[in-house]
Design goal:
Blueprint lengths: L2 H11 L3 H4 L3 E5 L4 E6 L13 H18 L7 E11 L7 E11 L3 E10 L2 E13 L4
Antiparallel strand pairs: 1-2, 2-4, 3-6, 4-5, 5-6
Length: 137
């Protein structure tokens, strides 16, 4: 893991939704991005269980950081164009973790898959497609 890249990503997150919700970037490298958050009351739905949006924030952000790290040379940025999330379980407390891995890293799109776990169990599977943004000529 490149510590300089990890610190740059952490700085980019300051003041954003990920920062507000307690997103912690744990590791970032060529083959994966890992992040987590500790479940707090603001992560829960009114029924007392983890809100799906909290899981999606974690998974989408993991995939987004991966895309940021792997933009083609000359690309300006990226934007998420499609997400798919299958929720298999939930949590009420503890740590929720996510690992994202690239499936496709092209010049115009990237596709990342993420697995979200809590207490050692898979609670969500996630796929994210990002469109690469290029400077306008």
């Amino acid at each position: 893991m490149n510590t300089a890249i990890l610190e740059k990503m952490k700085q980019a997150a300051q003041g954003t939704l990920t920062d507000h919700l307690g997103f912690e970037l744990v590791a970032a490298g060529a083959g994966s991005v890992t992040a987590a958050f500790e479940v707090k009351p603001h992560h829960l739905a009114p029924n007392g269980y983890l809100h799906a949006a909290s899981i999606i924030m974690l998974a989408d952000s993991c995939c987004g950081f991966g895309c940021m790290m792997h933009l083609p040379e000359g690309a300006q940025s990226f934007t998420t164009i499609e997400i798919k999330s299958n929720h298999l379980g939930t949590a009420r407390d503890g740590r929720v973790e996510c690992e994202a891995k690239p499936v496709h890293q092209g010049r115009t799109t990237q596709v990342w898959d993420a697995t979200v776990t809590a207490a050692g169990k898979t609670i969500a599977l996630f796929r994210c497609t990002q469109m690469i943004l290029w400077p306008k000529s």
